[in-house]
Amino acid sequence: MPAEIEIKQDIQSELSGPASPLSRVSMLADAPANSATSWKSRLSEKNHRLESIVRELLIELDVDIQDQHFRGTPARVARLYRDLTRGYRMRPDEILTTFASSHHELIVISDVNFYSLCPHHLLIYRGRMHFGYVPDGRIVGLSKIPRLIQGMAARLIVQEDLVSEIADTFMEYVKPLGCVVRATGRHDCVAVRGVKCHEAAMSTVAMRGIFQENPSLRDEFYHLLSVGGS
After folding, report:
1. Cα separation of 86 and 153, whole Å?
2. Rounded alpha-carbon distances, angstroms, from residue 7 to 19, 41, 196
3. Which residues contact 1 (CB under 8 A, 6 or more apart)?
4. According to the 3-state scheme, what is the secondary structure of 6-38?
5. DSSP state string for 137-179
6. pLDDT tens for residues 129-176?
7. Rounded CA gap, 93 and 185, in Å?
8. HSE-up of residue 116 (Cα within 13 Å, Cβ side)
9. Could you give the CA distance from residue 223 to residue 226 in angstroms, rounded to a whole number?
10. DSSP string covering 59-86
11. What is the 8-class DSSP label of residue 229?
């Protein structure tokens, strides 16, 4: 996506107010004309506020912000958090384009890398996801599922809710017979603070539709993961 379009969507999300996680942003073209004309100034204001917050944080931590290593830090961190939260500006309906298909059996996409932000400490957690679904007349392109996973992960969200929202979003937009999402993540909030347990990993699973009703289908999903070395 061109940077300008992403920036415009970021501004539109602020203009449009609260929205559901599944439809967080509307395209700028859908916004009133008077809103569209001010997106550049609003973006400048938002970035300035974020940089100021980072600068104040460094000052509170007794950092010399005139030191060569910190002069550009507020701007760099602002850009970082814009990227880490780009999921608030994604459009699932634009990602999950579908194609007609007569295939009605299990499809599995495994080992999708993801990273996200823990909402409790703003620390990163990262890992792998495995996704399976059974089509009901429509399939999605292979790249669309990693795009959905990585996009929805780029938010402040706990891992438990992340897998559930990915499954619910896929069910809503693609309408398969069912889908399953499995994630295993390692969390910096556990590794670098508190118990400091570096090797701990958490696995979460969300099942929808036919996967909730059919144990043999669940077994097939896990068997395919094991055969694939996952």
Report:
1. 9
2. 18, 11, 37
3. none
4. HHHHHHHHHHHCCCCCCCCCCCHHHCCHHHHCC
5. SEEE-TTHHHHHHHHHHSSB--HHHHHHHHHHHHHHHH--SEE
6. 999 999 999 999 999 999 999 999 999 999 999 999 999 999 999 999
7. 26
8. 28
9. 5
10. HHTT--TTSTTTTTHHHHHHHHHHHHTG
11. T
